[in-house]
Specification:
Shape: globular
Largest sheet: 8 strands, mixed
Structural class: alpha/beta
Bound molecules: adenosine-5'-triphosphate, magnesium ion
Subcellular location: Cell membrane
Main location: membrane
Membrane topology: Peripheral membrane protein
GO molecular function: ATP binding; ATP hydrolysis activity
Radius of gyration: 21 Å
Number of strands: 12
Keywords: ATP-binding, Cell membrane, Membrane, Nucleotide-binding, Transport
Amino acid sequence: MSEETILEVKNLHVNFKTYAGQVKAIRDVSFSLEKGQTLAIVGESGSGKSVTTKTLMGLNAPNAEIPEGQLLYKGKDLLKNTEKEWQALRGNEISMIFQDPMTSLDPTMKIGKQIAEPLLKHNKGMSKKDALARALELMKQVGIPKAEEHINDYPHQWSGGMRQRAVIAIALAADPEILIADEPTTALDVTIQAQIMHMMAELQARIKSSIVFITHDLGVVAGFAHKVAVMYAGEIVEYGTVEEIFYNPQHPYTWGLLDSMPTVETDVDRLVSIPGTPPDLLNPPKGDAFAARNKYALDIDFEEEPPFFEVSPTHFAKTWLLDERAPKVDPSDNIKARWARWAKISGGAE
Ligand SMILES: Nc1ncnc2c1ncn2[C@@H]1O[C@H](COP(=O)(O)OP(=O)(O)OP(=O)(O)O)[C@@H](O)[C@H]1O
Ligand SMILES: [Mg+2]
């Protein structure tokens, strides 16, 4: 493959020291991000998505410890960065869009000025006038209507969807190599979510940044991501191209996520969520962390942690079901019905 890897995460572990003991939030996570591509990290609440992205920005909480791992970017391990080196990187080469636009905007500053600020910070010698002109361009790029008239507005004058577009414009201001979006649409209503996703997909095609996109909803990544990492209880349990994850998923947890995706046809009552709750990360269970919730669990799942089995050179899953001694199990009829529908629609997931 002619793909160029821009970021490689290798065997990352993140622990948090708490009064109750050590929370093992990220356990042996590895993935890579290719230039100009989008990697989606998908998992339920508490699976470690935000801790992973904060680690990529050098922004972990003070009680975090990283006993092991590497973050290789341009031949350097970012985990060895000093705070000064992180500051030079953040908002410049690596930018982040947070879940709630209100927390990332300054309510007392005009929006145009907030977009211009990172430009001035990272381009010594740029004039304020040029920075504002570029801010206007960025506002148009992220789909803010009549941008000229609104460049001097304050955040409270805008709707949630428009504010999130402003946050994206700020993140894009410095032409980052890597854009990290941590559930950028969950605070917005469904129609606005779809508009922002559409806008991001367009941007991705145009600006060629590499994107790490975090979500708990597998549905939003179809047609947007190139690769998908499915996270459960601090680990990646399945990793593959978007086609492999949607059409040939191997891990029962991925099946559960697929099952719980809404479709155009199904009404909300029929949504299946995965029964049970994730394990306690203070004392991760022996064996496969998903075993207690896995209706296909084998005896070995409660005893021994599964390795990653290679499904294809780009597709890996951490489940004993892929061991040659395991009984053959199929995903649910619900998922098969979904595949049949996708095949009919052809062109991807709904
Ligand atoms: N500073 C901290 N101290 C102790 N535990 C923490 C800290 N930050 C995160 N955790 C724990 O790490 C685990 C992973 O949290 P994380 O925020 O990454 O989840 P997430 O996948 O982003 O969930 P959500 O979808 O709700 O945003 C959780 O169990 C969380 O309680
Ligand atoms: Mg989170």
